[in-house]
TrEMBL record:
PANTHER family: HTH-TYPE TRANSCRIPTIONAL REGULATOR YHJB-RELATED. Coiled coil: none annotated. GO terms for molecular function: DNA binding. CDD domains: LuxR_C_like, REC_NarL-like. Pfam families: GerE (PF00196), Response_reg (PF00072). The keyword Transcription does not apply. This is Two component transcriptional regulator, LuxR family. It comes from Pseudidiomarina woesei. The lineage of its organism: Bacteria, Pseudomonadati, Pseudomonadota, Gammaproteobacteria, Alteromonadales. Gene3D superfamilies: 3.40.50.2300, Winged helix-like DNA-binding domain superfamily/Winged helix DNA-binding domain. InterPro entries: CheY-like_superfamily, EvgA-like, NreC/VraR/RcsB-like_REC, Sig_transdc_resp-reg_C-effctor, Sig_transdc_resp-reg_receiver, Tscrpt_reg_LuxR_C, WH-like_DNA-bd_sf. Residues 3-120 form the Response regulatory domain. The modification 4-aspartylphosphate is found at D55. Keywords: DNA-binding, Phosphoprotein.
Length: 215
């Protein structure tokens, strides 16, 4: 009997994936989450999951941040990325940051189930066309991932808005917090990333290809 968590913000895709997996795993228990906060809450509540199927772009996840955060907090949980992208650079980073698989949403249900079987056995699965073609992460990127893993989801949101060039009062408005809270978050971000200016923080964010999280 298997238990999976599907973390994706599209209900229709979650429903379709449930149907496909139910045919392959007749005694499967599925949980669902639609954003990063709900995913972290589900992981905190249930330590008996066999696999997390994680969408890169669901609200709060911000491309690679969600994966890095989850791998830091739950290092023993197998994570497979489910994505509409098949960019080799993105696939390489996901595998480098700890995902055991990268499964394109465009795959037929039988192939998705086949990929999951491989991952549950402890092996890595990526699309056949990419096997042997993925670059390893640099030492600098691995070190940066460790630093980013220390950021809370709210600190990550502030980092993204810094990247967008917003002023403190604009960030406060976007996140419905005070300017004093924004300043406290920025101080913590600088400390955790080991930087001393907004420019340095933005450059580090760009190296991880961080994208917009939904507040």
């Amino acid at each position: 009997m298997a238990k999976f968590l599907i973390a994706d913000d599209h209900p229709l895709f979650r429903e379709a994936l449930q149907g496909a997996l139910a045919n392959h795993y007749p005694e499967l228990t599925l949980r669902e989450a639609g954003d990063l906060d709900a995913t972290l809450a589900a992981l905190n509540e249930d330590d008996d999951l066999d696999l997390l199927l994680l969408d890169l772009h669901m609200p709060g996840s911000g491309d690679l941040y969600g994966l890095i955060r989850i791998r830091e907090d739950y290092p023993l949980l197998p994570v497979a990325i489910i994505s509409g992208s098949d960019d080799p650079a993105v696939v390489a980073k996901c595998i480098g940051f700890g995902a055991l698989g990268f499964i394109p949403k465009s795959l037929p249900s039988a192939q998705i189930a086949e990929a999951i079987d491989v991952i549950l056995q402890g092996d890595t699965w990526v699309p056949e066309a990419m096997r042997g073609r993925l670059d390893n992460l640099t030492d600098e990127d691995q070190e940066l991932a460790k630093k980013v893993a220390d950021l809370t989801p709210q600190q990550y949101r502030v980092l993204y808005l810094l990247h967008e060039g917003l002023l403190n009062k604009q960030i406060a408005y976007q996140l419905s917090i005070t300017e004093a809270t924004v300043k406290a978050h920025i101080t913590a971000i600088f400390r955790k990333l080991g930087v001393y200016s907004r420019t340095q923080a933005v450059l580090l964010a760009e190296r991880l290809q961080l994208e917009s999280p939904t507040p």
